[in-house]
Amino acid sequence: MILVIFLTVCSFTSAIVLKDNGYEDVNIVIQDSVEPNWTLIERIKKVFTDASRRLFEATENRVYYRRINIILPKTWTVKGENNFKVQSLLVKGYVTVEEGILKQPHVRQQGCGEEGQYMYLTPSFLLKNGSTIYGKHESVIVHEWGHLRWGLFDEYAQQDHTRFYQHDGKWEPTRCTAKVEGRVGFGFRCGDSQSLKYCDVNNASRSMFGKCRFCPSISQSANTSIMSFQLVQSIAMFCDKDEPATPEWQRHNRRAPTMQNKMCKGKSAWEVMREHEDFSNGASPVLTEDTDTSPEFVIIQEAEAKRVLVLDISSSMNGESRIEHLHDAGVYVLQEVLRNGSWLGIVWFSRSATQKNEIVQITDDSVREKLIQKLPSNGRGGTCIGCGISLAIQMLEATFTSMKGCEIILMSDGKDGNANQLTTATQKAISNGVVITAVSISQAADPRMINIASDTGGKHFTYLDRGRISFAAVFSEAVSGLVTETDNQALTILSESLRVPSDRLHFTFQIETGLGESTSISVLTSLNVILNMTFVGTESYFEYSNVGKSLTWTVEHLKPGEYIVTVISSNHHTWDYIVKSLPSEPHPILVTSRLSTTKFDFSLQSADLPVLYVDVTKGKAPVVGAIIEAHVEASSNLCTLSPKDNGQDPDSLESDGIYSVYLLPKCLTNGRLNIRVTVNGQANNTYAIKFINGALSEDENEAGPEVISEGFQRFSLPEPIFVESFSSSTSDIVAPGQITDVNILNIVTVMTSKGERRNFTISWTATGNDMNIGQASSYEIRYADDIDTIVDNFSSAKTLDIGNVSLTPKQSGMTETIVISVNAEETYVDTAYLGIAAVDEAGNQGKVSNIVSVVVAKGFRMSFEGETNYTETEDEIITAPVTTTSRSNVDDNHIGLIVGVSAGVVIGMVVIGLILFLVLRKRREQSSKEASGMGQTSPHEHVNVSFVA
Ligand SMILES: *[C@@H]1O[C@H](CO)[C@@H](O)[C@H](O)[C@H]1NC(C)=O
Ligand SMILES: *[C@@H]1O[C@H](CO)[C@@H](O)[C@H](O)[C@H]1NC(C)=O
Ligand SMILES: *[C@@H]1O[C@H](CO)[C@@H](O)[C@H](O)[C@H]1NC(C)=O
Ligand SMILES: *[C@@H]1O[C@H](CO)[C@@H](O)[C@H](O)[C@H]1NC(C)=O
Ligand SMILES: *[C@@H]1O[C@H](CO)[C@@H](O)[C@H](O)[C@H]1NC(C)=O
Prior knowledge:
Elements: E1 4-6, E2 17-19, E3 22-24, E4 26-30, H1 38-58, E5 64-65, E6 67-72, E7 85-86, E8 94-97, E9 106-107, E10 118-121, H2 123-127, H3 137-150, E11 164-167, E12 170-173, E13 182-186, H4 195-198, E14 212-216, H5 259-263, H6 269-275, E15 296-302, E16 306-312, H7 322-337, E17 343-349, E18 353-361, H8 365-373, H9 385-399, E19 407-412, H10 419-431, E20 435-441, H11 448-455, E21 460-463, H12 471-478, E22 491-511, E23 515-536, E24 541-557, E25 561-583, E26 589-595, E27 599-601, E28 611-618, E29 621-624, E30 627-633, E31 637-641, E32 658-662, E33 671-681, E34 686-688, E35 706-708, E36 712-716, E37 721-724, E38 743-752, E39 755-765, E40 778-784, H13 787-792, E41 798-799, E42 815-824, E43 830-839, E44 852-856, E45 861-867, H14 875-879, H15 892-909, H16 914-933, H17 939-947
Parallel strand pairs: 1-15, 3-5, 4-6, 4-8, 6-15, 7-15, 8-10, 16-17, 16-19, 19-20, 20-21, 27-37
Antiparallel strand pairs: 2-3, 9-10, 11-12, 13-14, 17-18, 22-25, 23-24, 23-25, 26-28, 28-29, 28-32, 29-34, 30-31, 30-33, 33-36, 33-37, 34-35, 38-39, 39-42, 40-41, 40-43, 42-45, 43-44
The structure holds 2-acetamido-2-deoxy-beta-D-glucopyranose (5 copies).
One 2-acetamido-2-deoxy-beta-D-glucopyranose binds at residues 530, 532, 545, 568, 570.
């Protein structure tokens, strides 16, 4: 029985709660771009009811969905009296439903075991009756739930060079468990009859052809992990530790080069899940099979925000003109950012709190004007943050029937003088579901504000009297938009604070197609002056003047192009400016940024350095090729970083639209650090890729990337980080980064007088000295004949003796290619596992790389043959004597194909999408030239004609 009730609350908590085996407050957010359609709601109920059962079975009767909120946008008409509106503030862990340009269900995820940002499902996926190309709905949802809730990773191959791995004399397809049945061949369906002869898994004496794939049988008796092939009908479980206590059908495949193994250090799904609070310490004990797992569905409609500003007016706020900056930023936010229909009250506090404006709905400019009059302009007295929060809660209580989801925007620069009051007030906020967003003003602000924000489900921001981040930018981030309108809110294009006094300001900005509605160009100054603004675009010219401390020029429809803004003032002073614009078309380019942690204690050296992640998407498709700068600021600009989406540590996957970078010690200091992120897309050099490693599909995705043919700009401000126990005198404590892409480029086998000899050409991308910056000092290459030793106990594995040959690590980002040779007298039916760690000059050793396996024979000898300049067109491969029996009957074309293999592997490491196409085309041209020079058919031509269709 599915219950539907309409809620009478102000909102719901933002976090998913697990109570007595049932997940409550799982939020499914329908975006306002989705046309109202109640069939969709019925389908969501059906699909999630099935998913709840599947989740219950897959977790061995331990968890299911008990209550699911379906959150509707304001554009939907909710019938009858049940039209209850709520306000929401979702930070993470929700399901978003919208029809993006990318169709694959997927989750935006971070590290192993960490909660993901969101799960994305399209209406067309949900509305499809019966099985989809991704398998059954419930299997897809449980697969994505594994990513979203428990931070599990995929257990299928992500890239060409990880589709197969060498094991006991054969090529094994990447999968979990290793018992999953299927076919090997070309394309997603492995259908091509010719492919049989090229995708020979029994021949480990040569590379596997890059086009070969494994296609699991859709119906089969073997169990597969939900994180592996959710499209297989017999899936039922998550893999567990590979040990005798685990039933054989459930044993994790540690050897396969999956993201799960790479990100979670070889742990199975269940090992990661058992460490999660949902299952740890006996949480969620096993229930009986007849448990009713049908969720209750609650329909909620999102409403405008209900907020109280709680502003510090203590005497310290007079320092550095803080109260003035707060006032001016407040004027900007009240005039330009807060939406009509939203509610606002104002509280001032020093030693005690005063209501300066009751909570009113912002309906027109006169209300805004009245509220602006209530912004403080000078400070006096002490600091009682708790007094301010208590009063705001009283006001909310008096105004609304329920306070759940109502919001307090707290701004303070002081230490609270009354600790008890603060604790009591925060507790009251938590018990009433009031979310507190805190803005710390200056380094002196009470560090407890960070906890107040996170404990109540709010965000924390910082305004530091210095640097190039304006108070207006911080204030507008603190009043976030609606969760059902993510594709439909004003985007910040530029924002900067210029603190060197000047009588003029000059900047340019760019509007791309799809943007340009209600573009506002705002300038804030520190003095009352006459401002003359001129504004020049390709087809437009505007002039605008104002007397005062600010000027905003709003243009209803701005054409795409570049605009030059010049402002001349009657005096010298500091400047802030912000340019915002609304999308004019669906699927704008969106940028969000976040840090892996908002607190970092340097005395815990074992902790990884903080990582900045910047997401760039368009209609949920990853945008690649953007140039990102992250300016880290404390009391001065500490450093500028360039987050990359290249798959190198700390970036987990290339071309997924998540750009990542470590905050190295040189970018750190004690206290609060703010990061100003600017994103630039160059015309025709950025691409929206319509493929992501989401739910595996039965069909190949044929959609090419969308070229973004105009330049674009975005500004983003992540929550700041608070650093403790940092000492700049600390010696080199930062180890080299983890190498993440070790792979076999080529295998050559020859018979020698003593038996067989195999040369493995192995390649990886060099990491740096400090994480991925600079150049490491040496490599430690080790191997073992069992996987557990190399993964869990690297230092006890055998060191590959590199003898007198020198192997100096290259600069970070460059490709290393080496040859390892294996000699043995017996048949090659065993396996050795190889891992690499980079070491710096201080002896710090980086994390062990991904593991690559090579087929060996009993009593093998592995030796290092040196570096090589291997390329796919190297003659050696074609002319190498073919003497093993398995290769003796190979025809010319086949040998040609081995060339193709290598090219395929190299290409596989590059990018999916246009970048790939370009590379492919270039290689194809180059290679056909070379091939024709050699007087034989180009392997690539052959491949293309026969197999790519
Ligand atoms: C809702 O979606 C269903 C399934 O796609 C479709 O058949 C129906 O016409 C839609 N209804 C409306 C009102 O658009
Ligand atoms: C601003 O423009 C007005 C009218 O065009 C002009 O009189 C004034 O001198 C200008 N002020 C500055 C500072 O350029
Ligand atoms: C981008 O490509 C389009 C189509 O090829 C072309 O018209 C346009 O001029 C290019 N833009 C730039 C800045 O090169
Ligand atoms: C294996 O590598 C070594 C060193 O590079 C080389 O001398 C030898 O010829 C190679 N063997 C084959 C079969 O390529
Ligand atoms: C690879 O090429 C570079 C530049 O051409 C050369 O300096 C180096 O010696 C070559 N290395 C090997 C192992 O052939």
